[in-house]
Amino acid sequence: MSLMLIADDNPQLLNILSSAARREGFDTVTALDGRQALEAFRAQTPQIVLLDVMMPELDGFQVCREIRRESNIPIIMVTARGEDFEKIMGLDIGADDYIVKPFSPGEVMARVRAVLRRIDRGTEAAGKVLRVQGLCVNLEDYSVSVDSLPVRLTKREVDMLWTLVQGRNRAYTREMLLDLLWGYDYYGDPRTVDSHMKRLRAKLDVIPHPAWEIRTIRNVGYKFEVLP
Hints:
5-stranded parallel β-sheet
């Protein structure tokens, strides 16, 4: 049975989400502050994390950063505020999805199912390797290298890079990438793609790669292009 870590400083909400998760077939471990959440993550090795933003000790952003240094486990951020900058920040530091309170337990579990379905689709593609001009994208172990130098990416970033490289020289709209990588039932908007693309490019650009680039196609989206 899969284990879900739920971190929120509201005990009542924690109980509601835990009950909903158990009805979905999850075992649960809970935390009332960020430090407890990080300790539970390291001790229990959950398969997915629901992480409140506003918590004592360590906030959700700090916890998300720490988890991302150690794992690509799916993380869904939960917040009482819906400002765009908070959503973008959460996605930039590695969250897979973002939910704004108030919400129903059913909506949260639907988001959980959507995230886990995307992981299952990626697992089905395991064993594939793409090599283009010194870039290697390996879906068997979700590793990426440029000229044999490893580049540490999250699972979502690897999936995004794989999609672009596999369809190289083809332009993908933001809506297409949302559908392919987040699923048609994702509740977000196209800026989610821009946020993840910015982070992906920054990590790849640490190592020079003059033979290829990820181009922004104005008013369209993105494409992976092999340069002359």
